[in-house]
Amino acid sequence: MLELLPWQTSQWQLLAAAISQNKLHHALLLTGPDGIGLGHFANVLAARLLCHQAGADFMCGNCKSCLLFNAGNHPDLMLLEPEETGKQIKVDLVRELIAFMQQTNQYGRKKIAIFDPAEAMNRSSANSLLKTLEEPPADTLIMLISHQPGLLPVTIRSRCQRLIFHPSYSATTISWLWQNAGTNDIDMAELLEIAQGAPLKALQLLEQDPIGKRQSLLQDLIDIRRTNVNVVKIAEKWLSFDAEQVLLWLMSFFQQMTHLKLAPGNPQTGNSSGLPYLQELANELDLAGLVACYDEAAQHYQALMGPFNLNEQGVLENMIIHWQTTGKHS
Ligand SMILES: [Zn+2]
Questions:
Q1: Distance, CA 266 to ligand 1 centroid (Å)?
Q2: What crossing angle do the helices spanning 275-284 and 210-226 adopt, rounded to 10°?
Q3: Fewer CB near the last or first residue (10 Å), C or N of the chain?
Q4: What is the CATH number of domain 6-164?
């Protein structure tokens, strides 16, 4: 039985009000960081809309429609995703969707499609979808899931109602992590901070010693500026940590350094054990250099998240060289 995740209630209440007034928008764009549970939310909503139990808050779990949903083959629900992670959602699949949307629904409720992730659509896929968004058939809902909505064409974005899921650091989220982590020996608040407020990602990271890895990454940042390091070796190590995760951590380090540069001794977040080191690095660099490092990391991150097949090792080497050569404060 699908349950709503505790940090998603405000978005849910917004939609529940629209559903009860029969005013749900025909296209929703769900955005937020990876690991915040956008796909989960889309599924909870789809199950609720397909369920035959009138007026229930969530799926009933017992009706014919719910049984089909739980079995993973509801005929009125279509999931559009790339064949492999990082690949494109091709136009053929969108054409299938258009045909699917034209048919009458089989179980008397709605026809629902979920794109996950929507930015995997290539240009012709997006163009095909646009026509359906402009003239949606009756009783249909399209949900676009996106961690990088900036990569979607404006024409698509502007035709959807946007639902934003922000990182969550709340006490409720931390207590959900305690309940679901199956361990007591870790500081969940710090883990959540490392996962940038994305609780499902925090759970995934749990197995991989994220606190140790992030400390080691910070040590590397110091070494890169202090000693003559082997760029290729460091990039290899970072690659073994996961390139995207490393870039997210770097973004958060550079952001904290920028903050510490502007307001020395006054950290943005409370429980970062690396604070003295970040302050020291912030003192050495000028503001423009720090901002440029953040931008560099953010650009590399977006590039890796996009539908391109980039050489991650090369991306990380470029990042290291950028950091190594950023001008010291004179
Ligand atoms: Zn049901």
A1: 52
A2: 30
A3: C
A4: 3.40.50.300
User: Would you say 101 and 133 are in contact if contact means Cβ atoms under 8 Å apart?
Assistant: no
Query: Rounded to two decimals, what is the model's pTM?
Result: 0.76
Q: How far, in Å, CA of 169 to CA of 97, rounded? A: 37
Distance 9 CA to ligand 1 centre (A): 20
pLDDT digits (tens, 9 = 90+) for 177-186: 999 988 777 8
3-state secondary structure of 238: helix
Whole-number Å distance, alpha carbon 163 to ligand 1 midpoint, is 25
| Stretch(es) of the chain classified as CATH 3.40.50.300 | 6-164
Compute CA distances 96 → 69, 74, 113, whole Å.
20, 16, 11
CA of 65 to the centre of ligand 1 (A): 6
Reading the block at residue 251, the tokens are 């973004």
3-state SS, residue 329: coil
Residue with tokens 């460091």, as numbered in its chain: 234
Residue range(s) occupied by CATH 1.20.272.10 in the chain:
209-325
Inform me whether the pLDDT recorded for 329 exceeds 70.
no
**CA distances to 160, 289, 300, 307 from 50, in Å:** 20, 52, 40, 32
Q: Specify which residues 115 forms β-bridges with.
A: 80, 144
Q: Determine what percent of the chain falls in helix, strand and coil, rounding each to the nearest 5.
A: 55, 10, 35
CA-based R_g, the chain, Å: 22
Burial zone of 266 (CB within 10 Å; 0-12 exposed, 13-18 middle, 19+ buried): exposed
SS3 27: strand
Distance 45 CA to ligand 1 centre (A): 12
* Residue that the structure tokens 């974005």 belong to: 157
DSSP-assigned beta bridge partners for residue 143: 28, 114
User: Architecture of domain 209-325 in CATH?
Assistant: Up-down Bundle (1.20)
